[in-house]
């Protein structure tokens, strides 16, 4: 998966436009042009809407951020390109508050658009709300199509209104053409992207043209597609001879059935936890009995989420099959010591034995050597951190399920205490905890949180061995962020992440 720079793949780009222009399977039942020179485009295929995942970022306080964007499972290059520009707009509008990253906030799931709203009708172009149209019907843009948003408020505490919307311009075969429209302080920018869904590669819209310099970024950003499947720039259809090889391929693809990537990992959000408010779901002390594992697996599958399981070595040895089963469905299976001692009280050799025996048991069960450790009782020390060659995952939400053994209390505590960036601690060996899973998962989602694994929560930050990770964001000195990637015992402050 990769986002290719504007000038990095111009040759490939040209063929995409041509492809786009030759025809498509109509979103309203139209027929494609079969790749002939008399291309026909009358809408995006109906099948696409079923695979668009809707997201929203809306801050109710003064409504400074209002973003609506889609993702497609398996098209990570598209999401990465969109996220980069969305966060750039947020930062430009002052939403980072002088920090190096966004602190994601909760957004009511009701704010998320229905999938069809992301699909442009043929010739529609960016909407007025997305382009910052003023009363005279004009669109404010910077010369050359560079981000037009003012940066006067960035990092100075002055926050401006920021909007962001992405949309599908055209799609067919294994190509998708999309648009991202942002406004910062009333000034608008549009960018078009071309995604090869088969290769999972996303390029700027300029890659559609043989001469990437012929049209300005603002012109490409506002392009539409006509009924002959040709790009329309400044009101005129582009000549077929001006398409790159990629542009030609894209035009031809518009007459083919849409080929979407696998949705096997639909349980993972399309965007990172640097943009979305995520919560890591973790379970200690397993695996439990085969029946407990089966029950919990079913709840995870039904909710379409995955968790991190920190397993006790003795239990791994007793129930080896459970570990591979959990791993194969997309969960993380990691180390929780051999028999649950307080690691900070052990000698170096005994500490190593606790972890090595568990790793070997996991490997014998078909699980790769662990890269994460949940220390029993959360007990660590500078010496433990230095010796342990794993990421040490702590928590900031203790459901106390081990103490209360109460399903209602586990649900209530897990729901009320979880915030964006939280790590929830539970135990997969207690039946009341397992019974709490369906309602807890439902509540977390209703709150606007995205349940993920520990590894996904910290994705995009330095996630290194010897460091301790409690949560993500800026709400606590213990949380990880670019300025403070991890807690390192024995050090006054962790080394900041390198600047982008």
Automatic annotation (TrEMBL):
The keyword Signal is assigned to this record: yes
Q: Which UniProt keywords apply?
A: Hydrolase, Metal-binding, Signal
Recorded GO molecular functions are: hydrolase activity, acting on carbon-nitrogen (but not peptide) bonds; metal ion binding
Q: Where is the signal peptide?
A: 1-18
Q: Could you tell me which InterPro entries the record lists for this protein? A: Glyco_hydro/deAcase_b/a-brl (IPR011330), NODB_dom (IPR002509), Polysacc_deacetylase_ArnD (IPR050248)
Q: Which residues form the NodB homology domain?
A: 277-452
List where Low complexity composition bias occurs.
136-153
Any Gene Ontology biological process:
carbohydrate metabolic process
Positions of the UniProt region annotated as Disordered: 119-160
Query: SUPFAM superfamilies attached here?
Result: Glycoside hydrolase/deacetylase
What GO cellular component entries does it have?
membrane
Q: What is this protein called?
A: Polysaccharide deacetylase family protein
**What organism, scientifically named, is this protein from?**
Brevibacterium rongguiense
């Amino acid at each position: 998966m990769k986002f290719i720079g504007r000038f990095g793949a111009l040759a490939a780009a040209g063929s995409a436009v041509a492809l786009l222009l030759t025809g498509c399977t109509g979103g309203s039942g139209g027929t494609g042009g079969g790749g002939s020179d008399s291309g026909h485009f009358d809408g995006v295929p109906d099948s696409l809407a079923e695979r668009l995942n809707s997201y929203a970022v809306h801050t109710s306080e003064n409504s400074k951020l209002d973003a609506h964007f889609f993702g497609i499972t398996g098209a990570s290059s598209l999401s990465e390109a969109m996220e980069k520009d969305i966060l750039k707009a947020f930062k430009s509008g002052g939403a980072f508050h002088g920090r190096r990253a966004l602190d994601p906030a909760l957004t009511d799931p009701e704010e998320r658009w229905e999938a069809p709203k992301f699909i442009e009708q043929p010739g529609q172009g960016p909407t007025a709300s997305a382009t910052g149209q003023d009363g005279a019907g004009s669109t404010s843009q910077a010369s050359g199509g560079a981000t037009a948003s003012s940066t006067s408020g960035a990092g100075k505490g002055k926050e401006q209104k920021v909007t962001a919307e992405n949309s599908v311009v055209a799609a067919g075969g294994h190509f998708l053409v999309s648009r991202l429209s942002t406004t910062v302080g009333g000034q608008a920018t549009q960018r078009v992207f071309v995604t090869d869904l088969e290769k999972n590669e996303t390029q700027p819209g300029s890659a559609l043209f043989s001469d990437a310099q012929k049209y300005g970024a603002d012109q490409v950003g506002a392009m539409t597609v006509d009924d002959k499947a040709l790009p329309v720039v400044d009101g005129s259809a582009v000549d077929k001879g001006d398409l790159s090889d990629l542009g030609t391929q894209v035009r031809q693809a518009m007459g083919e059935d849409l080929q979407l990537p696998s949705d096997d990992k639909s349980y993972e959000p399309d965007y990172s936890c640097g943009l979305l408010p995520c919560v890591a779901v973790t379970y200690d002390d397993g695996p439990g009995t085969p029946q407990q594992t089966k029950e919990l697996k079913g709840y995870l599958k039904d909710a379409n989420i995955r968790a991190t399981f920190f397993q006790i070595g003795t239990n791994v040895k007793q129930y080896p099959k459970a570990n591979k089963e959990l791993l194969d469905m997309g969960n993380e299976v990691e180390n929780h010591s051999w028999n649950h001692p307080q690691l900070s009280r052990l000698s170096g050799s005994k500490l190593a034995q606790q972890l090595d025996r568990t790793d070997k048991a996991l490997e014998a069960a078909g699980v790769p050597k662990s890269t994460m450790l949940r220390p029993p009782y959360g007990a660590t020390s500078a010496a433990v951190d230095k010796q342990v060659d794993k990421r040490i995952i702590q928590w900031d939400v203790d459901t106390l399920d081990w103490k209360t053994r109460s399903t209602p209390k586990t649900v209530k505590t897990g729901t009320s205490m979880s915030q964006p960036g939280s790590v929830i601690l539970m135990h997969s060996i207690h039946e009341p905890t397992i019974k709490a899973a369906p309602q807890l998962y439902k509540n977390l989602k209703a709150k606007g949180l995205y349940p993920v694994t520990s590894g996904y929560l910290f994705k995009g930050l330095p996630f290194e061995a010897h460091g301790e990770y409690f949560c993500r964001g800026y709400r606590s000195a213990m949380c990880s962020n670019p300025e403070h990637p991890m807690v390192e015992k024995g050090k006054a402050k962790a080394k900041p992440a390198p600047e982008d």
